[in-house]
Design a protein that fits this description.
disordered N terminus; 9 helices; L-amino peptidase D-ALA esterase/amidase; four-stranded mixed β-sheet; alpha+beta
């Protein structure tokens, strides 16, 4: 009977969500600090493109595929021929982002940032290299060389993660799909099977316009969010998780929810920052993460990368390139923007989540928008 009631609730929720269309956190009246860009997305940073490849299949024996790949290209198609300054950081290291040792050493990100599930890093890594070779990317000697950046979070509750359903061609498809403009959020691409605070979650993005010494710059963030237990969830400073209806998805499953907590954040900006300054930006992501209720559990893989699309001459390897940068004393606005955009990107991922039935019949519901609004309204925080 308990299972039947859950199924009925899930079907009713799907119907409600189907009529709703894409909804973002601001659409619900959730308040945020800072001024977003036109799209409130990482693609507000000129040149940045994002592509998703979503894999949804139902298999025999009640197994299901709910996974995918997301690609972020700093300079669109030109990302393979023009590197960007970059830096990375981690909060808790129970996760993986390949290529970071070379970023640390060289200060450059060479190519895209790819997001997928934990057990598909190898396939995506291979797929990026195959795609680059097919594009004809080579140095002057004709030698192809690549150390792709591929990051992961675990989607094994909704996805048959040990079925190895992500293949190299899926990485190529995500790269081919990459475009500017609005970014699809929630259960798409690498975020297809991801869960936040025991609600359906996935990909989220946000941006901020920042004034620095008389100039305006754009900072955007994209997250693949897959962390948190229900009781930890805070929205606009309010502990809403303890009051949200529905059972936490990990109850009666044998999983330790505190071990299933990870997030990848990708920061893009057109502000002229050097690698060490971009690392400083990446270190500010946990400030926004903490506002939502994360405490970076021992099993959490919280890994962040930041890049700047400025200084294109340096990215092309011009020997006489003039390098520009913002003084460290002027970075505070960008630090604040990183915190603000991180919080909102996570909330966008959470709000975009839709009910999903996945592997072994596991059901994860999206957060109830009306219940969330009611709680915030009680605290006079809803923007109406």
């Amino acid at each position: 009977m308990k299972v039947l009631i859950s199924l009925i609730f899930a079907l009713l929720s799907v119907t409600a969500f189907a009529d709703e269309g894409p909804v973002r956190a601001r659409d619900l009246g959730i308040p945020f600090d800072g001024t977003p860009g036109a799209l409130n997305a990482i693609t507000d940073v000129a040149g940045v493109t994002v592509g998703h490849e979503t894999i949804i299949k139902d298999l025999a024996d009640n197994r299901a595929v709910r996974t995918g790949v997301t690609a972020i290209l700093p300079r669109g198609r030109d990302s393979m021929n023009s590197m960007v300054y970059a830096g990375w950081s981690t909060l808790n290291g129970n996760g993986e982002m390949t290529g970071t040792t070379w970023i640390e050493e060289s200060g450059f990100l060479e190519g895209p940032v790819m997001l997928t599930n934990t057990h598909s890093i190898g396939a995506v890594h291979e797929g990026v290299i195959k795609w680059r070779v097919a594009q004809g990317d080579a140095d002057a000697t004709g030698y192809y060389w690549s150390l792709p950046v591929v990051a992961e979070t675990w989607d094994g509750h909704l996805n048959d993660i040990n079925g190895f359903h992500v293949r190299p061609e899926h990485a190529g498809a995500a790269l081919e799909h990459a475009k500017s403009g609005p970014v699809e959020e929630g259960g798409v691409g690498g975020g297809t099977g991801m869960i936040c605070f025991e609600f359906k979650c996935g990909i989220g993005t946000s941006s901020r316009i920042v004034g620095v010494a008389g100039d305006n710059y754009t900072l955007g963030i994209l997250v693949q969010a897959n962390f948190g237990v229900r009781s930890d969830l805070h929205v606009a400073g309010v502990p809403v998780g303890v009051r949200m209806p529905g059972e936490p998805v990990y109850s009666n499953t044998g999983y330790n929810a505190e071990m299933l907590s990870s997030i990848i954040a990708v920061i893009a900006t057109d502000a002229p920052l050097l690698p060490h300054q971009l690392k400083r930006l990446a270190r500010r992501v946990p400030l926004g993460l903490g506002v939502t209720g994360s405490t970076a559990h021992n099993g959490s893989g919280d890994i962040f990368i930041a890049f700047s699309t400025a200084n294109a001459e340096a990215g092309r390897g011009d020997r006489d390139a003039a390098i520009h940068s913002i003084p460290n004393d002027d970075l505070n606005g960008l630090f604040a923007a990183t915190k603000q955009a991180t919080e909102e990107a996570i909330m966008n991922a959470l709000v975009a989540g839709r009910d999903m039935t996945g592997d072994l019949g596991h059901i994860v519901n999206g957060i109830n928008h009306e219940a969330l609004q009611d709680i915030l309204r009680e605290h006079n925080l809803l923007v109406e």
